[in-house]
Amino acid sequence: MPTIKLVNVTRTFGRIKAIDRVNLEIAEGEYVCVLGPTGAGKTTLLRLIAGLAIVTSGRIELNGREVTNIRAEDRNASYVPQQYALFPHMTIRDNVAFGPLAHGFTPQQSLETADEMLKLVRLAHRATAFPHELSGGMQQRVALARGLAGRSPLLLLDEPLGAIDARLRMILRYELRKLAKGLGVTVVHVTHDQQEAMSIADRIAVLRDGAIRQFGRPSEIYEAPESPFLANFVGGANFLEGVVVREARDATMINIAEGFSITSSHDDHGMGDFVVASFRQEGTLILTNASLEENVVPGTLVSTSFLGSFLRCVVSLGRAGEVVAKVPLREALERRLPDRTGELVYVRADRSRIMLFDRPKRPLAVELEAF
Amino acid sequence: MSLSRRVVLFLDSISGSRSARIAAYAIGVLFFLVIVFVPPVFGILLGGSKIFEMLSNPDLLNRGGSAIAASFAIAVTVSLMDLAAGLPMAWFIVRSRSGWASTINTLANIPFIVPTVALGYSVLAFWGSSQGIGYLLGSQFLFSPGWQMIVLLHFAFSYPVIVRVMVGALQGYKEVYETAARTLGASAFTAVRTVSLPLLKPALIAGFLLAFARSLSETGATVIVAGVFENGPVFIRNARVAGQESPLLFVSLVLIIASSLFFIAIRIFAPKMRLPISTVWPRLEKRLSSTSATKSRNLLAFAVFILFVIVPSLFVVLPGAGAVLDGTLYEAISAKGIWSNYWQSIGLSYLIALVATCLNVAAGLPMSVLIARRRSGSAISGILDTLINIPIVVPSIALGVSIGIFWGGVTGVSEFWLLVLAHASITYTYFVRSMIAAVESIPVEVEDVARTLGAKPLMIFRRLTIPLSKYALVAGAIMAFTRSIDETGATLAVAKKLTTAPVLMVDWVKGTVPASSHAIGLGLGILVLTSFASLLVLTIATRRT
Question: Is there a contact between A62 and A4 (Cβ–Cβ < 8 Å)?
Answer without folding.
Answer: yes
